[in-house]
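Module 6 notes. Inverse folding takes a fixed backbone as the condition and produces residue identities as the prediction. Think of it as a translation problem where the source language is geometry and the target language is the twenty amino acids. Below is one complete input and output pair. Work through it position by position during the lab.
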């Protein structure tokens, strides 16, 4: 039997991805591409991520896939079981910030540390990119998400602009202060 804690996290997509027609084929059929933030058809990894997104966020709007580093978590058998993203904030006032975009783990693989591994992979990348902080938010009821961030050294904070809505919980991790 496969060990569910033995997943490997692979960086599959970088923001520099060429979204041209030759690269991106056979996209998700039923989802309007505009909703995904893409204007062309998709490549394999993007297709996997969009499918995982659909599975993990049932009924939610599809995540925008553009301008983001994306990781896929693979099971021992090589099946995709999770995904997560990191976006570099572009605005001048947000310089140095890395935003943790969506992350999800399929139901049968939850509770085995995959999300924590994906958080650590994103922190490593953010440091490599020279970023100073990682930020994200979770909906108040999402205990699994909040606990995984806390477990990886994130702290709750109160941003001036509440980009995830008034009731969300906002988290930050300083990458330079070693906490
Ligand atoms: C949130 C989610 C990604 C967590 O993935 P996971 O791989 O099961 O998480 P982990 O196994 O790495 O567990 C991380 C931490 O959360 C805790 N946790 C897990 N499930 C929990 C739950 N239901 N309630 C409270 N804490 C929980 C774990 O105990 C662990 O903390 P610890 O190290 O202090 O023990 C997964 O539940 C999911 O995909 N949910 C649906 C989509 C979603 O909400 N994504 C996040 C919002 S962007």
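Target side of the pair, the amino acids:
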């Amino acid at each position: 039997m496969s060990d569910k804690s033995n997943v490997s996290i692979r960086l599959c997509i970088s923001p520099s991805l060429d979204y041209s027609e030759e690269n991106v084929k056979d996209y998700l059929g039923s989802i309007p591409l505009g909703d995904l933030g893409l204007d062309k058809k998709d490549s394999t990894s993007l297709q996997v991520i969009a499918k995982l997104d659909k599975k993990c966020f049932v009924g939610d709007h599809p995540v925008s896939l553009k301008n983001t580093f994306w990781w896929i978590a693979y099971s021992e058998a090589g099946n995709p079981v999770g995904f997560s993203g990191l976006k570099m904030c572009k605005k001048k006032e947000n310089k140095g910030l890395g935003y943790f975009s969506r992350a999800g783990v399929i139901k049968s693989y939850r509770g085995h540390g995959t999300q924590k591994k994906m958080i650590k992979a994103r922190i490593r990348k953010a440091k490599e990119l020279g970023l100073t902080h990682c930020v994200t938010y979770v909906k108040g009821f999402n205990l699994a998400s909040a606990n995984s961030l806390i477990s990886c050294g994130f702290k709750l904070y109160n941003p001036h602009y509440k980009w995830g809505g008034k009731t969300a919980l906002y988290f930050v991790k300083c990458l330079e202060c070693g906490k």
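Reference fact for the lab report: The first strand starts at residue 8 and ends at 13.
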